[in-house]
Amino acid sequence: MTASNSIANETSSTSWAADQYPFPSHLADELVHGTHWISPALVGIALLMWLTSMGVFLTHPLSELPLYFAHRYLVLDATSLLFMVVINTVFLGICVYLYSRERNTPALTRDIRSRAALMLLFMAVIHIGLMANHLVLLWTLIEISTLCAAPLVARGDVANPRAVAWRYMLYSVMTLAITFLGFMCLTQSAHLRGVEVSFMVDQLGESLTRESSAWQRLGLSFMLFGLGGKLGLAPLYGWLPETYEAAPTSTSALLASVQFNLSMVAVFRILQIFHGVDAGFVSQELLVMGYISLVVAAIQIMACTNYKRLIAYACVSSSGVIALGLSVGKAAAYGVVLYIVSNAFVKSLLFLTAGRMRAVYGTNEVDPLSGVIRTLPLAGLLFTLGIFALLGFPPFASFLAEMLILSGIVQAGNLLAFTLMCVMLTVIFVATGRTVFPMLWGAPKVTVTVPPQSWITLLPKLGFVAVLVMLGTYTPDPFTDLLRAVAVSIGG
């Protein structure tokens, strides 16, 4: 097995674009010459977006927020500002990774124009969604982001990537249809009480009732259940492992670290609207979905022999931890927000490093990759650090976040949730270690040719590790204040 016949998702000779549109060599050379500027331009745009978000963060004190735009349909508040900074940081890293891969990958160069256009459109939709001050607008933008991401998923190198992309879209339509049923139920609840309903985030709470209302609770239930499916919470998690495995690694990182956070913002908006209303009902639903997700993830990880699927099921586990923390609120809220932020960087680090391993070994299966740390020392080290961060080891931010969530659960007196979370995280830790550590440190089973790697490829991954350590050891006061403001908005 050599690197020439074992290319990563982005570089696979069996990729959809390469199979459907083969190029003669002279035309391929012309194409490369005509598109050589696209990936550097993509990095430049991502850098500009990151600098803009950081500039807004540094120049807009929390005391000045919220700021409304477009007839109050858009809002810049602590929630939108936090996630804007996070996703732009992640997106910059993904673009740098894609640029470094594209320089040595003709197959990727062939569709870099459409890929870059889809990624930029995807990010534009995500940014508007983060600032949406209207639930129906936010719901619509989540679906549009799925339509932008589906063609990127279809560029994967599984047997039938377009079928996976279609199933991803169908799951999304189903979960968002359930969410829309929730909107209809809220409208019916307000109509029966003779109240006019507005789905503006800062106005919808005025049409809610603190008295028992079956329609209102049904609406809340549908909204959380539908959006839970977009987050990969059980039982509507089936799309996530298949899609994350089939998609190119850069697309997997976009879905796990960018689109996930848009859906997370939608959940935060609902919690902000229902703050103090039906709190017990919200807690119970999130608690049940969190329980089931942790159990499902633990079982699947124990049986997993595919490292990319293992990362995907770890994402299901992370969603379960988030749901448990949100069900408690109060003292656990800060830990939940920190956990969500840290997970964006952990997922990106793992998926981008998995792309390097896929490029060399040509498989997502664990067994042939025995001895990665010897064959690919840097990739093996970075993947190890990512796994440690995923499992909640110090000094990474995920360790501090999990401790805060567990502390909040104990303070809330929910010993069942505390026990289940500890047991499931222990099972996941053991199962992940049993699968991953032999892959990293075992005796090599195959001989591979390792293509040279540009130092540029390492920059985003090293940056993600640095951010995770910083958040776990010392967080600058302005960012701590931003995290705390978001936690307070969801009941912390």
Automatic annotation (TrEMBL):
Entry keywords, A to Z: Cell membrane, Membrane, Oxidoreductase, Transmembrane, Transmembrane helix
Transmembrane segments: 37-58, 78-100, 168-190, 218-240, 286-303, 310-328, 334-354, 375-396, 416-443
InterPro entries the record matches: ComplexI-like_HydComp, NADH_UbQ_OxRdtase, ND/Mrp_TM
Domain NADH:quinone oxidoreductase/Mrp antiporter transmembrane: 132-426
Domain of life: Bacteria
Coiled coil regions in record: none
Protein name (record): NAD(P)H-quinone oxidoreductase subunit 2, chloroplastic
